[in-house]
Design goal:
This protein is an alpha+beta fold. It has 8 helices and 8 strands. The chain has a single domain, classed as L-fuculose-1-phosphate Aldolase. Helix 1 crosses helix 8 and helix 6 crosses helix 8.
């Protein structure tokens, strides 16, 4: 195992444990994946049946483009490969793919016309970067459904999956996790604002676009954020790196 792959397994396990801490998980469902650098058609994927709060680097599977396990003790769960495999294949820049049913973001996928509105500073991180799939077709157990979901993402980095959950992609595990974290924060604020029954106060398009640009010019914030979160795990939950 290369040093780079070993680190990627540790980072993916850390992301899963952190997601459980923040309440982004649901049972032993949903998956995080990462395309192995320099080896097309090879993906790291969390195994089905291991709770995210107990995920270890050595639990992470290495699978190929056909969903076969190349390293690890179990096979890839069908819906995981159907969704993640097709997203990785269709979007080569999507090195990291995170899919969750985290509550506040998912709540917005369950209301008519639900979208992330530009009403808060965190929302503006995603201005123009969210795609919406309004069609729910049951469990994603068919390759055609995985392809449809991958196509729905288009050129965006976030997909709201109607009546289902969300999918976030990123060039690195740190960037994808940073987006996942702030997406749920933005959705939480929006759901709370909607619960007042008062009209949402939208930021103008010009200010939203310029603020997004400011976020994107902010340098290595995502890497710093993820490194800080891993230090918390290193202090009180270091088992992820095993």
């Amino acid at each position: 195992m290369t040093t780079e792959m070993a680190q990627a397994k540790k980072d993916l396990a850390a992301a899963l444990r952190l997601a459980a801490r923040f309440g982004f998980n649901e049972g032993v469902c949903n998956h995080f994946s990462f395309a192995v650098p320099g080896t097309p058609d090879r993906y790291l994927l969390n195994p089905h049946g291991v709770h995210w709060s107990q995920m270890r680097a050595r639990d992470i599977l290495l699978v190929d483009g056909a969903g076969r396990t190349l390293e690890g003790e179990t096979q890839a769960e069908l819906t995981a490969f159907t969704i993640h495999g097709r997203v990785h294949a269709r979007h080569p820049h999507a090195h990291c793919v995170l899919h969750t049913h985290m509550p506040y973001a998912t709540a917005l996928t369950c209301v008519e016309g639900g979208e992330l509105a530009p009403i808060h500073q965190n929302s503006l991180r995603f201005y123009g970067a969210v795609a919406y799939d309004r069609d729910y077709n049951g469990l994603a157990e068919d390759p055609a459904e995985g392809e449809r979901i991958a196509a729905a993402l288009g050129d965006k980095r976030v997909l709201f999956m109607g009546n289902h959950g969300v999918l976030v992609i990123g060039e690195t595990i740190a960037r994808a996790f940073d987006d996942l974290y702030y997406l749920e924060q933005a959705c939480r604020v929006q759901v709370l604002a909607m619960s007042t029954g008062r009209p949402l106060k939208r930021v103008t398009d010009n200010v939203a676009a310029s603020t997004k640009a400011e976020f994107e010019a902010g340098g290595a914030y995502a890497e710093s954020h993820f490194a800080a979160l891993k230090r918390i795990l290193d202090a009180d939950d270091p088992g992820y790196a095993q």
